[in-house]
Amino acid sequence: MKALLMTGYGPLADNLRIEDVPPPRVRDGDVLIDVRAASINPIDFKMVQGKLRRIQKHVFPAPVGFDASGVIIGRGRGATRFFIGDEVYVRADRNRTGTFAQQVSLEERWVSAKPASMTHEEAASIPLVGLTTVQGLTDRARAAAGQRILIHAGSGGVGTFAIQYAKALGLHVATTTSSGNAEWVAALGADEVIAYDKADYKTLGRVFDIVYDTLGGQFTMDAFDMVKPGGAVVSIAGVPDRDFPKQVKAGFAKGLAMRMMSRKVLARADRVGAQYFRFLTESDGAQLSDIGRLIDEGRIRAVIDSTYPFENIIAAMQHAAEGRAKGKVIVRMKK
To answer: In the prediction, which pLDDT does 58 show?
Structure first.
């Protein structure tokens, strides 16, 4: 079968190639999935670029890809929830990536039935952004109906999902985007759209219960000027939080380095009386099932920027890495 492999760290065009590889080994508790579509997330191209090597190193050539939608074609011993022919979607675990392939074998507990109302391309756009948002807003920030949330970059892959999910929870949603995308983002359900090229969102002040920081850098620090005392800043691009070293099983030296990296942000959070969360997403089939119910109820829809055939996946990765996609970039594995 064919799969995309990462051959080193650096520019995408120089460190990715499609190769013929043996079919995946189906372990106990696994299901074998015939992949129909996959989606690209920032973690995919950042791994290749070497931006995450301090968190996770790779032995090359290494498989790539977290999100997939497809059909069950095999089961390992002890896998009982799904049957041959079932349509499923999944977010692979960070230690078993490889959804940019014609087949992938993954633990059954990470897998969920595909939302019935979605195509495979639409379903593939959901898992990582969905789980990241649920684990950030619900599991950590304890988002509740009636609260106010600021979501940065509302036109991006995470932002487009987060706006819809926050509205499904009953939150008042404000989001930032360019003026060219403002009307389009408002149609996703945002109550307030701040066009960053025409207005300064920071003038709103500390009126938010939650700030969802998808950009990192100065945006992470500025989030504490927007969040109420007792509120939460949830970041997917900022420095590690206090629990991050334990989550990635960092040793003493690496854990100390992470704490030094985070000290300014954590001190700022303490000064304003806010919580700060920066974590790695965990695979979770049960949470995908909950997301699927919201999708089939019509409360969340897929937002797709573009779709590429598998043979053009490197161009798809380069497009996603430019950072201008409106929604998710999809890879169609089957013609």
So the answer is: 86
Q: What is the DSSP string of 221-251?
A: HHHTTTEEEEEEEEESSS---TTHHHHTT--
> Is 289 inside any structural domain?
no
Give the total residue count for the chain.
335
Q: Would you state the pLDDT for residue 297?
A: 98
User: Which stretches of the chain drop beneath a pLDDT of 70?
Assistant: 335
Domain, as residue range, for 328: 2-126+303-332
Provide the H-helix boundaries in 134-251.
Answer: 157-168, 182-186, 218-223, 244-247
Per-residue model confidence (pLDDT) at position 55: 73
Tell me: do 181 and 258 sit in the same domain: yes
DSSP letter for 101, please.
B
CB burial string 285-323: b at 16+ within 10 A, e below: bebbeebbebbeeeebbbbbbebbebeebbebbbbbbee
Supply the DSSP string of 27-73, one letter for each residue: -TTEEEEEEEEEEE-HHHHHHHHTTTTTT---PSSEE---EEEEEEE
Task: Give me the pLDDT at residue 90, please.
Answer: 98
Residues 98-108 pLDDT 10s? 999 999 999 99
Residue 329: phi and psi, rounded to 5, are: -100, 125
Same domain for 266 and 133?
Answer: yes
pLDDT digits (tens, 9 = 90+) for 57-89: 789 999 999 999 999 999 999 999 999 999 999
Instruction: Give the end-to-end CA distance of the chain in Å, rounded to a whole number.
Output: 15
Tell me, what's the pLDDT at 70?
98
Count the helices and strands in the chain (H runs, E runs): 11, 16
Give the pairing type, strands 16-20 and 62-63.
unpaired
Name the domain count of the chain. Answer: 2
Cβ atoms of 158 and 190 within 8 Å: the answer is: no
The two beta strands, 328-332 and 30-40, are antiparallel
Main-chain phi, psi angles of 194, to 5 degrees? -105, 115
Q: Please return the burial class of 160, using the count of CB atoms within 10 Å of its CB with bins 0-12, 13-18 and 19+.
A: buried
Bond from prior residue into 229 cis (ω within 30 degrees of 0): no
Judge whether 260 lies within some domain.
yes
